[in-house]
């Protein structure tokens, strides 16, 4: 996300941002599977994000 974009304000918007980020990274040859620590300083919580590939089913987009 760039500063010119509107930040997500709902879970659906957050999911859409994550989907775009993961697809773009994958298309650029980045192995997106695994764990990522997101340390955010004293003023915000820290998060641990785990990305795993899942098997597609017939209902996948």
From TrEMBL:
<protein>
    <submittedName>
        <fullName>Uncharacterized protein</fullName>
    </submittedName>
</protein>
């Amino acid at each position: 996300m760039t500063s010119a974009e509107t930040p997500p304000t709902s879970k659906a918007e957050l999911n859409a941002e994550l989907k775009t980020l993961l697809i773009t990274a994958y298309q650029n040859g980045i192995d997106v599977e695994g764990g990522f620590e997101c340390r955010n300083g004293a003023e915000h919580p820290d998060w641990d994000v785990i990305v795993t590939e899942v098997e597609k089913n017939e209902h996948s987009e």
